[in-house]
Task: inverse folding
């Protein structure tokens, strides 16, 4: 469906439904997995059983984070290689992703099993809860490798164009878990062990679906050789780092909250077990809200990113308005439920026959009326964070995500509970204050980004003085890769003029814009800031467009092409002369000041930054080093020769080669 819909012209409502609904369903399935266990264990075991599942939840987060690190990275690499029609490399990426997943899951789960008792206490367990948590954890770890595997593979399945299969894979396991929970917990009287057993059987079902799909991948064909690991796995992992960092933030917060709930709860009338149990329940119910909002926002991400890149700012603003309205609607709904119906919600998770029922419900109501009293406001922070990612502002998005969990909530909790001496009540009201402050900060960021969409960017022109096209001989193509400040562009201009062929540098921006469907202004801006810190889907689209443009040019005319990885793109073409130009750092600084208008004060820093970015960008797309002399036919040090002499030398060799 995604391939058939026109992101730039289709009705926004239709696009949002098509993209967001599968994301929401997939996110909700993961949340339901955790909630189902919580409900049946709460009813069958009580407060201590609920607390046990909460204590083990940080372990689940760790496992999910690793699955996301490998799976998201593998899917991103898969998409990039398919886009470049590099099917062999795409297959190799999938094979390495699977191998890395298997190794990581076995190692991680083995270490977790060995250190499980210590981990349980690290996660905030009490003496009363410990035996339940240990029983639950020992069984959960048996199924953990299956969970890591199918979670990672789910990303690849979606990228392969089978989102429905991925959804059914996750749904089948969740349904099995729901069916088996009451049978094991109540029918067989297995308690927390029954809940854990039901969970891992559900995970095994999803695992079977995942393995089955690997034999029927549509885009590539896998063989044994593709599963061998090499250094490329580090690049794959780097592509999934963003989701891993986000999950790690959640992990830190959960461990912190578990520990303060038990320690400060022990000093209150509620005791240590009830706050630990209630926090876990409310967090998991709240995850339904978070999953919905994040799912809608992520579903909107490709629509926002494409239209922003295409210069359709009005469509971007329309998407943002609608996403924000829908997300706030869900936020208000959950806020109302938590504020006015806390006892009805929480009573699902505990039997009225439980001895601690009254105290349990009292704390649950207190938490709903303090810690998450204004949780609906979080819709803005989550929406804005995904918006920033869509626009390629990953660092800014990450910092916004950190705002509530790390920057505000933890320090304010410590200040209120220990500094002011409010105990556990301080932690509860810290959540309220953190939500309000985060909302204010997110509002400022959102409005700033929204207003920037209304500003007209200055039009840019990249037309240089064209050479007189006098060359009539056999086709000559010269590609010039260069360090910033080496004079490589000047060499290219002189060479093209002397040869009488077309010169391509900034001119490629206009051609790539037409090929990609993105605006020329946007492509120009991305060209200026080429760095792996900001790589997003549109950057990949630009690279693929430039690649096609360069190959098309090379088929029909003689020319000189500067930059754009042209030497790598045309490396298999026989009549291409690949040149690299470099020089000393002192000369680079001097040239930057003299020719590029860089101040003497900032010149060294600018030279180092731009060359570092160029090297990383080159390596990201070519998997080789920019300054590796083996990649070129000719290499020149512009400290030893003038740009005129270098251009003349290249001309002579190029004519002989032709």
Result:
């Amino acid at each position: 469906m995604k391939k058939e819909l026109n992101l730039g012209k289709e009705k926004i409502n239709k696009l949002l439904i098509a993209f967001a609904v599968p994301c929401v369903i997939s996110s909700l399935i993961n949340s339901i997995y955790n909630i189902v266990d919580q409900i049946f264990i709460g009813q069958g075991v009580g407060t201590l059983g609920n607390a046990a599942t909460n204590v083990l939840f940080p372990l689940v987060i760790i496992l999910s984070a690793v699955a996301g690190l490998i799976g998201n990275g593998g899917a991103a690499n898969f998409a990039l290689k398919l886009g470049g029609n590099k099917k062999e490399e795409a297959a190799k990426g999938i094979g390495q992703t699977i191998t890395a997943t298997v190794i990581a899951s076995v190692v991680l789960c083995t270490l977790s099993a060995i250190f499980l008792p210590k981990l349980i206490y690290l996660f905030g367990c009490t003496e009363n809860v410990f035996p339940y948590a240990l029983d639950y954890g020992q069984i959960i770890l048996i199924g953990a490798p299956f969970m890591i595997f199918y979670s990672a593979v789910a990303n690849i399945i979606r990228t392969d164009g089978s989102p429905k299969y991925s959804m059914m894979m996750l749904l089948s396991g969740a349904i099995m878990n729901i069916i088996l929970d009451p049978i094991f917990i109540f029918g067989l009287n297995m308690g927390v062990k029954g809940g854990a057993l039901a969970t891992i059987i559900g995970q095994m079902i999803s695992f079977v679906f995942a393995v089955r799909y690997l034999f029927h991948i549509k885009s590539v064909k896998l063989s044994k050789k593709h599963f061998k690991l090499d250094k490329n796995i580090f690049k794959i992992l780097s592509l999934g780092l963003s989701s891993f960092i986000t999950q790690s933030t959640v992990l830190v917060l959960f461990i912190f909250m578990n520990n303060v709930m038990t320690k400060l709860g022990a000093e209150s009338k509620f005791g240590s077990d009830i706050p630990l149990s209630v926090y876990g329940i409310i967090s998991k119910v709240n995850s339904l809200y978070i999953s919905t909002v994040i799912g809608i926002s992520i579903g909107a991400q490709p629509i926002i990113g494409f239209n922003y890149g295409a210069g359709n700012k009005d469509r971007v603003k329309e998407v943002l308005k609608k996403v924000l309205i829908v997300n706030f609607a869900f936020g208000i709904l959950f806020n109302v439920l938590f504020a006015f119906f806390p006892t009805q919600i929480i009573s699902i998770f505990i039997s009225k026959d439980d001895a601690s029922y009254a105290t349990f419900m009292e704390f649950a109501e207190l938490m709903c009326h303090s810690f998450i009293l204004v949780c609906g406001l979080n819709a803005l922070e989550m929406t804005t964070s995904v918006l920033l990612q869509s626009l390629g502002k990953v660092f800014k998005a990450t910092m916004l995500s950190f705002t509530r969990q790390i920057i505000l909530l933890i320090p304010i909790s410590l200040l209120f509970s220990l500094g002011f001496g409010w105990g556990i009540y301080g932690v509860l009201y810290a959540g309220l204050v953190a939500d309000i402050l985060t909302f204010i900060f997110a509002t400022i960021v959102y409005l700033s980004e929204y207003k920037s969409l209304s500003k007209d960017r200055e039009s840019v022109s990249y037309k240089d003085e064209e050479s007189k096209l006098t060359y009539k001989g056999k086709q000559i193509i010269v590609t010039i890769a260069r360090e910033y400040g080496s004079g490589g562009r000047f060499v290219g201009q002189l060479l093209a003029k002397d040869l009488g062929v077309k010169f391509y540098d900034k001119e490629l921006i206009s051609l790539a814009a037409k090929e990609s469907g993105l605006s020329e202004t946007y492509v120009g801006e991305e060209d200026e800031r080429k760095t792996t810190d900001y790589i997003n889907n549109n950057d990949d689209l630009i690279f693929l467009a430039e690649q096609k443009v360069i190959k098309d040019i090379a088929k029909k005319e003689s020319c000189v092409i500067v930059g754009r990885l042209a030497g790598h793109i045309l490396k298999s073409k026989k009549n291409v002369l690949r040149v690299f130009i470099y020089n000393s750092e002192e000369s680079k600084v001097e040239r930057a000041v003299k020719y590029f208008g860089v101040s003497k004060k900032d010149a060294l820093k600018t030279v180092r930054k731009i060359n570092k970015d160029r090297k990383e960008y080159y390596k990201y797309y070519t998997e080789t080093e920019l300054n590796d002399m083996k990649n070129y036919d000719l290499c020149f040090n512009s400290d030893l020769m003038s740009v005129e002499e270098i251009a003349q030398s290249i001309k002579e060799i190029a004519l002989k080669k032709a």
Summary: Residues 456-467 have pLDDT under 50 and may be disordered. Residues 47-83 form the longest helix (37 residues).
